[in-house]
Every structure is written in C-alpha cells, then in structure tokens.
Specification:
This protein is α/β, with parallel strands linked by helices. Helix content is 30%, strand content 29%. Helix 12 links the parallel strand 25 and strand 26. The termini are close together.
Length: 435
C-alpha cells in the first residue's frame, strides 16, 4: 500500500485520542500472563507487535480472551506454570517481544525457539543473551546467540550485577524479568535512565524493587497479583500529530489522555525548546501504573535544537519525526550520537537522511550524528518507508509540508504500532489518497 499526499493548506482541527501505548500494551500482556488471577485491560494496542506478544503467551499455555481487539481478559498462570511451546514462537518484527520474552523463558525449565521476520532476525540480541547466559540460561543461535532464531533452555538462575554500556529499556527489562526467577538479587545499572515502564508494572502488580539512582534491583522468589486498568494513549503515536499541530498554520488539535511518563517526555521538552506552545496541562494518575495528560498545541515559528546522547533514551522513537520538524526550524539542528537508531526496524538514520534528501531537505549524517539545516522548502517526491513504521509516518508528515505531490511507498508497516493512523488523519481533515 502507498499513499499520495499534497501540501496541507488549511489548519488542522480536532480532539484526538490515541491507541494504547505500545510499550504498555506489551507489558500488560506479559504481566497479566505472569500474575496470579485474572487481569482485564482496555485500550490495548491492536498493532502487529502486540499481537505477537499475545500469541506467544498463548503458545505458552496462557488463556487470553478478547472481547474486542483492544480489550483483553488474561488468566495469569503465575511465574512457574508456563508450558513448553509445541512449536517455534514467531515474534514477527517485535524487538520488545523477543527480548522481554527471553528474560522470562530464561527462568523456565523447558526448551523454546524464538524467531521472527527477516528484519528481527538481523537485529542484535547479545546485548540480552550474554547477560542471561551469565545468570545460568542456555541460549544458542548465530554469532553466539546474537541473531534469531535463538534456541534457549531456562533453568535455575543466579542473580547478577549488570552494568549496561548503553541505556536500553528492553535490555534492562529482560534482566529484571529474569531476576524474578533468580536466586538472590539481580541489579541493573544504566549510564542514563531509560524508560521505566517495567519498574512501574512490577510495583503495580505487587512486586518489590529497589531503585537507587541509575540502579534498579530485584530479588527472586516474588509473586505477582492480577490487575485491571485502561492503557494510556501512546505518546510516540501522538508525536506525529503533535508535529502536525506545531507545523501547520491555523491548527488547533487537542490531545486526550496521552501517556505522560517522565521517561518518555523527551519529545515534549525538545518541542518546547524549539518554541512550540503547549497549553496548560491537565494531569491525572488514574490509568494503572502510569500518568496521563490532556493538552493542546498551537503552531509557532520553530527554532533549531540540539539533542545530546544522554537525552536519547527519552525520545529514541521520536527521532524520525524530529528530523522532519528540524527541516522547518530556523538554524542548524543536531542530534548527537544516535547510533541506537541503526538497529531499529530499519537503520533510521539512513532512512530519514536518504528519504528527506529526496524531498530537498538539507540533512546529513556525520557518523551517527544527524545534522539538519532549516527552514527548507520541501518538494514532493517518491519516497520509501523502508518497511519502518516510524519512517513511514514521518515522511507522510513531511509530505504535508512539501510543494507538489509526495508518494510514500510500502505502508503496511504502520500497522505495527498505529493501525488507525489514517483514520485520525481524516479526523483532522488531512487529504490523502491510498493506492
């Protein structure tokens, strides 16, 4: 599927709610499966990645009932009653699914093989598997279990003290989940704090953790108890519409019940530095373990920005749309040392530099640093998602700012994280043609 889009010449108006946050939806399924009792979750993301997580736990013997694609009832089996799968567990394109599941299976005494699509099987896994081996699990695969398919056998684990060279919520989460099964204490120390959803879920489901600066510790032998709540709207999905609201003159978009976790607000802080105007926030803490917010954005002239390496964990998924914002901002924007983008669904440094350049953007990569000069009058072009959902949606926003017609190709990947993206485009009166 492709889309044709022309420059938007009118303000965008509307009140928007967003699908459940992808990170939270993964963890709701995971913790609901590991808890004792029945959990009930609403506004679960129905994207392909989260469906992979659900199917994985069904293969492990967990009963999951869906009253709708976004409402799940999960009969948790507890930590020690998962069943050996009868076939390989295919996790599609989902890095979160495979890495967190490895942490859980490391503590279960049976064999399992985890695999995925070509993209997932090319993404590095030793950042997780090396630590799980230290804890006592057996993992085998190409390049010393660096690439899926990965065959693993769990068993009796021992706690470790892991010091991560690069902050990663996926790696941290995998180790902490394995720590639930390990003898003694397991701790993870990061150079910069990454997303803390797993820590919040552990505490909300009745677990006990200790947080000391950049170190999180957990003791094995705990039990988790079932919970029920509504998943907060995905701020990473909202980010595309936040960019539209800031860029398109005359726009007035209201955002409802969006995740407002402090470890995910890098996009907000950078947009504020650029000069984007956020109306007064209405905060609440009623959606399970997470904080939500209602807000609106008014378009303003934007200035260039710099993002240092230590800021990246809080906005790593928003870098593609930030490069689009940078093309319309006054001055030189620099995103430093974004090497983690090289190992996403695609190399997102390459995808954004190569495709925005086709549209006339003054953007280049200097090693793993991205430099963008603005403002630039973009022009329509044929561009490609390179099978990456965040690249695809970012290029659609760029097409809304470009003279002439832009065609963005290969859009099926958007279902990974934002299956109703085009519905919301219609809601705010963005014109496009699917082909």
């Amino acid at each position: 599927m492709d889309v044709k889009i022309k420059k938007t010449d009118h303000g965008l108006l509307g009140k928007l709610s967003f699908p459940g946050d992808k990170s939270l939806s993964h963890r709701a399924i995971i913790f609901g499966s590991l808890a004792e009792g029945e959990s009930h979750f609403t506004n679960v993301l129905a994207g392909e990645d989260c469906v992979c997580t659900r199917k994985a736990f069904e293969k492990l013997g967990v009963e999951i009932r869906a009253s709708s694609p976004t409402e799940l009832y999960i009969k948790g089996k507890g930590l020690h009653a998962l069943q050996a799968p009868r076939e390989d567990i295919d996790l599609g394109n989902s890095g979160t699914s495979i890495r967190l599941l490895m942490g859980i299976l490391a503590g279960n005494p049976f064999e399992a093989t985890l695999t995925g699509d070509l993209s997932l099987c090319s993404r590095p896994m030793r950042r997780v598997t090396d630590y799980l081996k230290q804890m006592g699990a057996t993992l085998e695969g190409r390049d010393d279990a660096n690439f899926a398919p990965i065959r693993m056998k769990g068993g009796k684990l021992r706690g470790i003290e892991a010091e991560l060279p690069i902050s990663s919520a996926q790696v941290k989460s995998a180790i902490l989940l394995a720590g639930l099964y390990a003898e003694g204490q397991t701790s993870v120390t990061e150079p910069v704090r990454s997303r803390d959803h797993t820590e919040r879920f552990l505490k909300y489901f009745g677990g006990s953790i200790e947080e000391n600066g950049l170190t999180v510790s957990i003791k094995g032998g705990q039990k988790l108890k079932a919970k029920s709540f509504e998943i907060a709207g995905d701020i990473s999905s909202a980010a595309f519409f936040m960019a539209m609201a800031a860029l398109v003159k005359g726009s007035a978009i209201s955002f409802k019940e969006v995740l407002w976790n402090p470890t995910r607000l890098g996009i907000v802080e950078v947009m504020k530095r650029m000069g984007a105007h956020f109306d007064e926030l209405k905060l609440s803490d009623t959606k399970g373990p997470e904080v939500i917010s209602d807000f609106s954005i008014q378009p303003r002239p934007l200035n260039a920005f710099e993002i240092k390496r230590e800021e990246l964990p809080s906005l790593i998924d928003e870098v593609p749309i930030l490069t689009v914002l940078a093309t319309q901002a006054k001055g030189k924007s620099i995103i430093y040392e974004a090497d983690e983008l090289r190992v996403k669904e695609t190399d997102r440094i390459h995808s954004m530099v190569s495709q925005l350049s086709k549209m006339g953007a003054r953007i280049e990569a200097k090693g793993n640093t991205i430099v963008v000069e603005g403002p630039t009058a973009l022009h329509g072009a044929k561009v490609d998602s390179l099978k990456d959902h965040r690249t695809a949606m970012s290029l659609i926003v760029a097409g809304m700012m470009a003279d002439g017609e832009t065609m963005v190709r290969d859009l099926e990947c958007i279902n990974t994280s934002f299956p109703n993206f085009f519905e919301l485009l219609k809601k705010v009166k963005v014109g496009y043609e699917l082909c």
